[in-house]
Amino acid sequence: MGGMTTVGDLPAYRAVPDGEGPWPGMVLVHEAFGIDAVMRRAADRVAAMGYLVLAPDLLYRGRRTACLLRTFRALRRGRGQAFDDIAAARAAVVADPSCSGAVGVIGFCLGGGFALVLAGRPGWDVSVVNYGALPDDPSALDGACPVVASYGGRDRYLSGAAEKLESALRDRGVPHDVREYPGAGHSFLNDEDNQPWYVAPVSRVVLHAGPEPASAEDAWGRIEVFLETHLRR
After folding, report:
1. What would the pLDDT profile of 78-100 be if each residue is shown by its tens digit?
2. What is the mean pLDDT of residues 41-53?
3. Which of the ends of the chain has fewer CB neighbours closer than 10 A, N or C?
4. How far apart are CA 19 and CA 12, in angstroms?
5. Can you spell out the DSSP letters for 103-152?
6. Residue-wise pLDDT tens digits, 194-209
7. Rounded to an integer, what distance in angstroms lies between the CA atom of residue 44 and that of residue 124?
8. Is 169 left (phi over 0), alpha (psi -120 to 50) or beta?
9. Of 82, 107, 89, which Cα lies nearest the Cα of 52?
10. Per the CATH hierarchy, to which homologous superfamily does domain 2-184+214-230 belong?
11. Could you tell me the pTM of the whole model?
């Protein structure tokens, strides 16, 4: 279903639905560990719903730690190379003959923060936010596209984020579906624990990170319905 390609000089994972297109497109923005097997399977899962998925590796240029710091810095500032790379991925999806022209963004962890910022910018039809940090300025969500978001109630780093996001989207009249899962922590949609050994102690204490299958199945179901409603028009 999927394989590697490029977006400019970046490697990217491309996942294609079965059957005949054209299909709506989705740009997948990975979590802090880059395009690994977990993110590739997430892209395959979105493709199986009937969406053409492109997932650029934002950590490709240089040493991964330095790339990660630059990417977090870009997210905090709301501008930078990472945003340019995501825009290039979006342009590549839209230009693909297999794409219908509609395009959304889905992000996990670090990528969830990007998906939330991008929701308030032109060019996106829907945003799927999975445990993404909220922008410092809520006005970044003015005029946002429809947003479906999922958070874990055991994630101390993002404590209260679901409630704040719900309020911000409601106040702005943005179509949305925001849910917090009490039994889940950070990265609960992942289908396996992919944390490197050196971050695992902190992530288990602060983030309670790791798979939570029951919450994940419910969240994926909500995502599928939301995309069907707001992207497959």
Report:
1. 999 999 999 999 999 999 999 99
2. 98
3. C
4. 22
5. EEEEEETHHHHHHHHHHTSTT-S-EEEESPPPPSSGGGGTTPPPEEEEEE
6. 988 777 777 878 899 9
7. 21
8. alpha
9. 89
10. Alpha/Beta hydrolase fold, catalytic domain (3.40.50.1820)
11. 0.97
